[in-house]
Design brief:
The complex is a heterodimer of chains A (349) and B (243). Chain A is mainly α and 349 residues long. Chain A is 72% helix and 1% strand. Chain A has 15 helices and two strands. Chain A has a two-stranded antiparallel sheet. In chain A, a hairpin with a 5-residue loop joins β1 and β2 (190-191). In chain A, α6 runs antiparallel to α12 (234-260). The longest helix of chain A is centred in the C-terminal third of the chain and has 29 residues, at 320-348. By secondary structure, chain B is an alpha/beta fold. Chain B folds into two domains: 1-81 and 166-243, P-loop containing nucleotide triphosphate hydrolases (Rossmann fold, 3-Layer(aba) Sandwich); 94-165, no CATH class. Chain B is 30% helix and 30% strand. Chain B has helices spanning 44-51, 74-79, 97-102, 120-133, 150-163, 180-191, 207-213, 236-242, and strands at residues 6-15, 18-28, 33-38, 59-64, 67-69, 82-85, 108-112, 115-118, 168-172, 199-203, 216-221, 224-230. The two termini of chain B are 31 Å apart. Classes of the chains: A mainly alpha (349), B alpha/beta (243). At the A-B interface, α1, α2, α10 and α11 of A face α2, β8 and α5 of B. The structure holds adenosine-5'-triphosphate (ATP) and magnesium ion. Adenosine-5'-triphosphate (ATP) is lined by residues 15-16, 18, 20, 38, 40-46, 87 of chain B.
């Protein structure tokens, strides 16, 4: 973190008026841009404290945490993928359907006798192909990804139901899913899927902040023309993000199906909106260029905590969507306010 | 006499109905600074965007030191030593100065197939040097572009172009929105290009600026080159008659 005196040097020449509070607001702007997930983290801690008190200590108990963390990888993976794509400047509304089709295809392959490992890889290849189609159509015809992937949402969901044959096929009883489902860690606190999740999250986070590819994704989403002019292969970067997003959604679906031990064609319904909500609550900018993997996780975790905490503190569970909705709007409004404030101060300076 | 550094022959460009370049012939010799002037919409930006690989020409050839070249992408232009500072914002406001300086050309300490991990230490160090080299003293390369003034951003863009030791530096209206002091700095810098072995193309609407810092004036009007003379053999009044 740069200190205040360094910041003063960056002022435009002649802007020496030290307005009250301006430094603080400008610092806030930088903090938001670099650590957009901070507000989400604060909210998460606050909510955990509230739920812990209201539930009389049951919320942070091992049993309850196991429930929250056991489901996190599934939604979390989708949220990370959606976040990375949003940082790159595009949307994907088809993740919920991909979340269902991938494990459906994987399950049918397993039932047909394909080794599980290979079946998962083939399923993920299908997911990646959906992402490629999303990206290719969006970029080739220059239409909003919002529309392309809305169409894909219906197409992929329909395909899922069609290949399922109308009723959920049953995974073989002897299928060993312990690589994802067994409880591990101190006191069996989380499932093995959580380790997969952490590993993928770390890799995604490193990709975003430590690699040149991450730089290109931020540049492409932050200012498409500038990135292209500076030599970033923006089209390929976007295609990559689309494919990564779909693949992560597919993997999340596989984990859920292995946990449930049955590929329901309806899973992931509405998940696309939860994932966008998680991304936005975690500080991802709708305009692209800004966001973090940690933010996606915090957003997803917040949604899980609200879901679980309402139940634990015996609030009518129908308030769940109300809370998520309110939080989403609040997150976007406060981020927009931060940007506007910072911009106005710059113009005056 | 050796071949010109850049030679554009019979260049045409159409944008959906607009004939933006109508058979432009344009030479730039080694180590000269050419001032490119012309009314709004004359085709100046279009011409230089073709040289910097942003647009493809519809017809015409480009030669570099007599060799025919195809400049299919900004990356290809950079490989040929052509660096460009664009009229419209050419940096990413949501990213730091250091990252902006190296977008697309990040120093990597390990790479596979063009993708790898950024050497942040080196990037920061070289950023400081690149900024100092163009006399821009910002204490932290971690500040975001959005936090800088217009002049400072322009400075970062110049630092980026210079750091990669280009053979040709193209500046499209680099003094827009700049203060008198910052304008003087940019113009002084342009004037100093030949001494650093760099050839320059400066686009500006201000004839005083062009006369002050260029060796040759080229004027465009409605997609054609209508005037081309060394600064020493012409005057602001004469150029004005062509615009
Ligand atoms: N991307 C584009 N799509 C369609 N038409 C364009 C595009 N870029 C430029 N034009 C048109 O091409 C012509 C030349 O534009 P150009 O930007 O090259 O002018 P210029 O000389 O740079 O003008 P200015 O001094 O205003 O920057 C104009 O008529 C413009 O409207
Ligand atoms: Mg122009």
């Amino acid at each position: 973190m740069a200190d205040r005196s360094a910041r003063r040097d960056l002022r435009p020449a002649g802007a020496n008026a030290e307005r009250m509070g301006e430094g603080a607001v400008k610092n806030l702007f930088r903090i938001y841009m670099e650590k957009p997930e901070l507000a989400g983290v604060a909210l998460l801690i606050a909510l955990a404290v509230v739920f812990e008190m209201r539930s009389g200590g049951a919320f942070l108990s091992g049993d309850n945490l196991r429930g929250i963390l056991g489901l996190l990888p599934e939604v979390g993976l989708v949220s990370i993928g959606v976040t990375i794509l949003m940082i790159g400047g595009e949307f994907d509304l088809s993740v919920g359907s991909t979340f269902a089709l991938t494990p459906m295809a994987t399950s049918l392959l397993i039932i047909a006798g394909v080794p599980a490992f290979l079946a998962i890889l083939l399923g993920l290849a299908i997911a990646a192909a959906i992402g490629f189609a999303n990206g290719f159509i969006t970029l080739t015809f220059g239409i909003p990804s919002f529309i392309t992937t809305l169409g894909m949402l219906f197409i992929v969901r329909s395909l899922t139901v069609v290949i399922s044959g109308g009723f959920p096929p049953l995974l073989p009883d002897d299928l060993n899913t312990s690589a994802f489902t067994q409880f591990v860690g101190p006191g069996g606190l989380f499932r093995a899927s959580f380790i997969w999740f952490v590993a993928i999250a770390l890799a995604a986070s490193a990709m975003l902040s430590l690699s040149n590819l991450g730089n290109w994704i931020r540049a492409t989403g932050g200012h498409l023309e500038a990135a292209g002019a500076m030599g970033v292969p923006a089209r390929r970067v976007k295609l990559f993000c689309f494919m990564l997003c779909s693949t992560m959604a597919g993997f999340g679906g596989v984990i859920q199906v292995f946990r449930l031990h049955s590929p329901l064609p309806s899973i992931g319904d509405g998940l696309e909106l939860q994932a966008v909500a998680a991304a936005v609550i975690g500080g991802t900018a709708l305009t692209g260029g800004v966001g973090t993997v940690l933010g996606a996780i915090v957003g997803a975790l917040l949604i899980r905590v609200i879901d679980n905490g309402l139940v634990m503190s015996q609030v009518d569970a129908n308030w769940f969507k109300f809370a998520v909705g309110g939080l989403t709007i609040f997150a976007v409004v406060s981020n927009a306010w931060l940007r506007r404030t910072a911009r106005r101060l710059r113009v005056e300076a | 006499m050796s071949a010109p550094l850049i030679s554009v022959k019979e260049m045409h460009k159409w944008y959906a109905g607009v004939h933006a370049l109508k058979g432009v012939n344009f030479d730039v010799r080694q180590r000269e600074v050419v001032g490119l002037v012309g009314d709004n919409g004359a085709g100046k930006s279009t011409l230089i965007k073709i040289l910097s690989g942003v647009h493809d020409p519809d017809k015409g050839e480009i030669y570099i030191e007599g060799e025919p070249v195809k400049i299919g992408s900004p990356k290809a232009a950079m490989r040929l030593g052509i660096e460009t500072i664009y009229q419209d914002a050419s940096m990413v406001p949501t990213m730091s100065i250091a990252r902006n300086l190296f977008i697309g050309r990040e120093p990597l300490w390990v790479a596979l197939g063009g993708v790898g991990l950024i050497d942040h230490e080196r990037m920061r160090r070289e950023s400081m040097k690149a900024l100092a080299d163009v006399d821009l003293h910002l204490r932290s390369p971690d500040a975001l572009l959005a936090e800088l003034s217009g002049g400072q951003r322009q400075g970062v863009a110049i630092a980026r172009a210079m750091h990669f030791k280009s053979r040709v530096l193209i500046l499209d209206e680099p003094t827009n929105h700049l203060s008198v002091k910052e304008t003087a700095k940019v113009l002084g810098f342009v004037r100093g290009l030949p001494a650093q072995g760099v050839t320059g193309i400066l686009i500006s609407h201000n004839l005083h600026h062009v006369f002050e810092s260029c060796d040759r004036i080229v004027a465009m009007a409605r997609g054609e080159i209508v005037f081309d003379k060394p600064v020493a053999n012409t005057s602001i009044e004469e150029v004005q008659d062509y615009l």
